[in-house]
Amino acid sequence: MKTVAEIKAEIEKLKWLVEREQWKQEEFKKCFVIMPFSMTRDSRGQEYWTSFFDDFLTESLADCGYQALKCQPTSGSIVRGIMEDLAWADVILAVLTDFNGSVLYQLGARHSLQRGRTVLICQDDQISNLPFDLRHYGVADYSPSLDRAPFVPKLQDRLAKIGDETRDSPVSSFLTLRDFYCTNRALACLRTAMETLRRFNGDKDDFRCLAAVDHLNQEWGARAIQLTIFKDDKVRCHVRKDVIGISAFECAKDVTWDHQSLYRLMRSDGKGIRLGGIEGYSGRITALAYDTLAERDWLVLVEAHLKQGGL
């Protein structure tokens, strides 16, 4: 026979799951697009590519349940903002038509991060000229007439096949996924955490926000992932209640060199990802993905742990 407290806890968990599903349905999933912005071959200029994004690609992605977000053009090398998009975006779509150098460079940067969840599209009469290593991973083609009717099912098929750690690039096929498995888990869970916490921006107190952190920790515990909140250099929320209120420097005993706590670096960066280990736990890889929730002055940390030697 379950106790009243156990029944109440199960009801709260069900309410949380229902609320989270409602959140998911309120917003489109986000897809960052890397594509040409200005003149390419066949005299396609800025006007063409703007229309391509606004009228063809945005509507096609909406039909698939995604919101299209476009990286902004820059002069010179890729600036930090675009690199952050490539590293943090859950889904990337690359337009390979006309073989634009900037697009190919950005796609290479995404592949080198081994984030997975990258979809390629190209005009159908140009696919045969794509490098084999790219064609091998599947490209959704569209006609020069930009007819969405035949394109959308192809795009849906590619999006349906992406996964958290999909081997969708030449890079991920030849390098070990062990370290990157950790990194991808940490990045994906941090994104979920930040989107969840921002739902409570209008709340004056932290009660519901901290309850959401507890729910996420319960879900992620079986996958060796944990979420920690720091405020005023102290632990505000943690999977272990006995460490709440202690010094953040003592809690964040993740090390990369010289046995130094990474908390000071994380607080200084405000946002980033690092690989390290845990004091006293040899043979374990830890990926730390962190961001700042400015509304509450919280440093949000997701740790993904993995034992050496395999998944």
Please provide the count of β strands.
11
Residue share in helix: 40-55%
The helix/strand class is alpha/beta
Supply the number of helical segments. 11
Name the beta content range.
15-25%
Please compute the radius of gyration using only Cα atoms: 22 Å
Shape by Cα distribution: globular
Major β-sheet, in short? 6 strands, antiparallel
Mean pLDDT comes to 83
Report on the structure:
- Strand 3, helix 4 (101-113) and strand 4 form a beta-alpha-beta unit.
- Helix 2 packs across helix 6 (148-160).
- The chain has helices at residues 4-26, 46-63, 80-88, 101-113, 132-135, 148-160, 170-174, 178-197, 207-220, 248-251, 263-269; strands at 29-34, 66-70, 92-95, 118-123, 140-142, 225-231, 234-237, 254-255, 272-278, 281-293, 298-307.
- The chain has 311 residues and is of the alpha/beta class.
- It is built from 11 helices and 11 strands.
- The model has no long low-confidence stretch (mean pLDDT 83).
- The strands form 2 sheets. The protein has a 6-stranded antiparallel β-sheet with strand order 7-6-11-10-9-8. A 5-stranded parallel β-sheet has the order 2-1-3-4-5, with helices on both faces.
Could you outline the blueprint of secondary structure elements for this entry?
Blueprint: H1 4-26, E1 29-34, H2 46-63, E2 66-70, H3 80-88, E3 92-95, H4 101-113, E4 118-123, H5 132-135, E5 140-142, H6 148-160, H7 170-174, H8 178-197, H9 207-220, E6 225-231, E7 234-237, H10 248-251, E8 254-255, H11 263-269, E9 272-278, E10 281-293, E11 298-307
Parallel strand pairs: 1-2, 1-3, 3-4, 4-5
Antiparallel strand pairs: 6-7, 6-11, 8-9, 9-10, 10-11
